[in-house]
Amino acid sequence: MKMYRIGVLLVFVVVLAGCDADVFGTSTRDIVGSYELKQHEDFETYYLYGPQETGWGVIDGTFEKIGWNSRYILVLQHDDGNGGDWRIIDTKSNSISPLLTKTQVEINRDVGGIETYSASVAWHKL
């Protein structure tokens, strides 16, 4: 019976080691509302997760810069093959803007004054 328990424990450890499980929640940090920053296992890649994420985050990929206030998240999306530019996420309505130019972002009153950071700097600010 003792060998059976050890065998079950070893199988459990091997299976758990092979999983991409974040048992202690150390790879995510809350931003605003139900949105969070997720750090990939390489510690250099970050995704923005939220209620409508697709497996690659709410913006379908990684980003270069991110900033937030009590309602909005401003993110500079990397080019995913379809173009990359700024997006505004309204965390109350869970809506994501289409790609916006820097000029369009600068004249938007909702995100005026939001300071943006690189993903790794934002991670440490949260």
Characterization of the model:
The protein is an alpha+beta fold. The protein has one domain (27-125). It has helices at 2-18, 102-106, 119-125; strands at 28-30, 36-39, 46-49, 63-68, 72-77, 86-90, 95-96, 117-118. The chain has a five-stranded antiparallel beta sheet with strand order 7-6-5-4-8. A three-stranded antiparallel beta sheet has the order 1-2-3, with helices on one face. The longest helix is centred in the first third of the chain and has 17 residues, at 2-18. The radius of gyration is 19 Å and the shape is globular. 19% of the residues are buried. The model is unreliable at 13-20 (pLDDT under 50).
Short recap of the structure:
With 126 residues, this protein is α+β, with helices and mostly antiparallel strands. Helix content is 23%, strand content 25%.
Topology of this structure?
Elements: H1 2-18, E1 28-30, E2 36-39, E3 46-49, E4 63-68, E5 72-77, E6 86-90, E7 95-96, H2 102-106, E8 117-118, H3 119-125
Antiparallel strand pairs: 1-2, 2-3, 4-5, 4-8, 5-6, 6-7
